[in-house]
């Protein structure tokens, strides 16, 4: 048995040496230099931060205008114009802009104070992408889609939700974003990807239509972590930890934390497990020179570019999170009185995330097969 251990020890030592040799020293040293201005806070903003001034400009972001969405937008606009006169309502520049809303484009001079989304989780991701170069206004999200993990409000409660915002009672949870920059072999920004991407859920490198696995070198703060041979890699935010990363076996992370989650996609090594890094870390993913396949990049479900061997993407926490308004902002007096006499969190302190992982993810639910129950003899 001792000879077997010695042989494995020699093999592992040789593997580590070869791994270092495959990554040129100049490449490792280049990733030790800071790639961005490091002014990112190490901790997130407290989740119960209160919105200050009432909004003057509201931006509506909605999914495709089905009949329910059309009726919801019309009711929303009528309520805003009658209850909050003087408030301007904007809509992104699309062919289906609703009557009573002004046209808005990213970079417009009008400062948006509140973003209202009507749709699913993808609608919030789209709203985040509209503010990819700077701060995001507070986001008030209403569920009108197929998935509602980021959607604390039902459309029937839009008047209560707006009242909490205008009266200064709304609390927000700052959901972290990732800043991503793509580099070519010479460590210059790729021309069409010159601007940093701001990602709310995740960035995924994948082999796409290639039959071969990707070979990707992973650097953390300039230090070579490992060479990953897999279908791809996912770097997600805590918000994105319940999306693609979760399906690939990653951990569930509370959104009030600031962290980067690294999750492999079908790795060749069974010991390659997901990792969680602090938000101060800089993660670099470089396509290995020996990789038999390029890697496609998708950011929040949007295709970005193709990375060839030698090209890389640098990922770190963005200084511009997405401030999402909590459902606890619309707790009424009667609700608060009832909650005082029951177990659980006090009024205004309940966690939307706890409710969501139980209701939407069925966290720790017992497995029950409907087919087995249907044909069971007992």
Automatic annotation (TrEMBL):
Keywords: ATP-binding, Kinase, NAD, NADP, Nucleotide-binding, Transferase. GO terms for biological process: NAD+ metabolic process; NADP+ biosynthetic process. One of its GO terms (molecular function) is NAD+ kinase activity. It comes from the Eukaryota. InterPro entries: ATP-NAD_kinase_N (IPR017438), ATP-NAD_kinase_PpnK-typ_C (IPR017437), NAD/diacylglycerol_kinase_sf (IPR016064), NADK (IPR002504). The keyword Lipid biosynthesis does not apply. Pfam families: NAD_kinase, NAD_kinase_C. HAMAP family: NAD_kinase. Belongs to the NAD kinase family. This is ATP-NAD kinase. It comes from Panaeolus cyanescens. The lineage of its organism: Eukaryota, Fungi, Dikarya, Basidiomycota, Agaricomycotina.
């Amino acid at each position: 048995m001792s000879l077997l251990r010695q042989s494995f020890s020699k093999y592992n030592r040789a593997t580590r040496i070869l791994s270092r040799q495959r990554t040129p020293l100049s490449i490792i040293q280049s990733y030790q230099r800071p790639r961005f201005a490091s002014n990112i806070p190490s901790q997130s903003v407290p989740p119960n931060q209160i919105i200050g001034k009432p909004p003057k400009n509201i931006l509506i972001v909605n999914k495709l205008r089905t009949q329910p969405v059309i009726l919801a937008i019309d009711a929303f606009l009528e309520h805003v114009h009658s209850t909050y006169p003087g408030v301007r309502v904007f809509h992104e520049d699309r062919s289906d802009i609703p009557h009573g809303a002004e046209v808005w484009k990213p970079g417009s001079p009008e400062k948006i104070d509140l973003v209202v989304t009507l749709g699913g989780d993808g609608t919030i991701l789209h709203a985040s992408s509209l503010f990819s170069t700077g701060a995001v206004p507070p986001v008030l999200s209403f569920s009108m889609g197929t998935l509602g993990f980021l959607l604390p409000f039902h459309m029937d409660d839009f008047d209560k939700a707006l009242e909490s915002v205008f009266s200064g009672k709304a609390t927000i949870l700052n959901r972290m974003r990732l800043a991503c920059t793509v580099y070519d072999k010479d460590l210059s920004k790729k021309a069409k990807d010159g601007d940093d991407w701001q990602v709310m859920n995740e960035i995924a490198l994948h082999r796409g239509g290639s039959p071969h696995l990707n070979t990707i070198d992973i650097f953390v703060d300039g230090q070579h972590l490992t060479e990953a041979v897999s279908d791809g890699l996912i770097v997600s935010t805590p918000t994105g930890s319940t999306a693609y990363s979760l399906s690939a076996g990653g951990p569930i992370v509370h959104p009030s934390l600031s962290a980067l989650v690294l999750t492999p996609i079908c790795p060749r090594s069974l010991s390659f497990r997901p990792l969680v890094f602090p938000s101060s870390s800089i993660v670099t993913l470089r396509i290995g020179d020996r990789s038999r396949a390029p890697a496609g990049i998708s950011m929040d479900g949007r295709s970005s570019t193709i990375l060839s061997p030698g090209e890389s993407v640098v990922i770190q926490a963005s200084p511009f999170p997405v401030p999402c308004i909590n459902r606890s902002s619309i707790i009424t007096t009667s609700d608060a009185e009832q909650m005082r006499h029951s177990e659980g969190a006090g009024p205004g302190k309940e966690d939307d995330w706890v409710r969501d992982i139980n209701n939407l993810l069925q966290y720790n639910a017992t497995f029950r097969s409907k087919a087995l129950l249907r044909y069971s003899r007992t």
